[in-house]
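Exercise 7. Given the encoded structure of a 163-residue chain, write a plausible sequence.
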């Protein structure tokens, strides 16, 4: 009856140019990642985040272009065509979806900071796998080419990563 008086959750509105960290935790440069493909940035500019929780969010406003059925990775594309991959853990595809709850369907419009996957970090750890979340800018826009990434700010979830 008094639901109209409940405080609404604050919704953070981000610009279409903003990139936010997909999860809270300790961020690290690619050079410190355990997986060679991510460490050598073979798929694009990469940062890693050792997560402090399992709520994995969209790093940008865009379309959920690819959602792996196992929930271990997803890709989002912005309206300017920049593509970003979020990969949860190392070798977590081998869990075949165990420990991952997918919240959004492929093709959905998503906002930066909106939860996409819930990952049970304990299940990942018990399997002996690395829980580091990788954010990879796979297809940068013209102004976001790799040579411009020296100034990425490492920030917490829902704060902006400038590039």
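Solution.
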């Amino acid at each position: 009856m008094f639901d109209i008086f409940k405080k609404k959750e604050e919704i953070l509105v981000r610009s279409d140019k903003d990139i936010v960290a997909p999860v809270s935790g300790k961020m690290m440069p690619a050079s410190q990642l355990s997986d060679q493909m991510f460490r050598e940035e073979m798929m694009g500019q990469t940062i890693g985040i050792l997560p402090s929780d399992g709520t994995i969010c969209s790093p940008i406003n865009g379309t959920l272009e690819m959602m792996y059925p196992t929930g271990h990775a997803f890709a989002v594309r912005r309206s300017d065509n920049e593509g970003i991959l979020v990969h949860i853990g190392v070798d977590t595809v081998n869990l075949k979806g165990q420990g991952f709850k997918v919240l959004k369907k492929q093709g959905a419009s998503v906002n930066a900071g909106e939860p996409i996957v819930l990952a049970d970090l304990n299940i990942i750890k018990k399997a002996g796998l690395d829980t580091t979340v990788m954010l990879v800018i796979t297809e940068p826009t013209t102004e976001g080419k790799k040579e411009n990434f020296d100034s990425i700010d490492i920030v917490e979830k829902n704060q902006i990563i400038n590039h």
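Remark. The mean pLDDT is 83. Students should compare their own answers with the one above.
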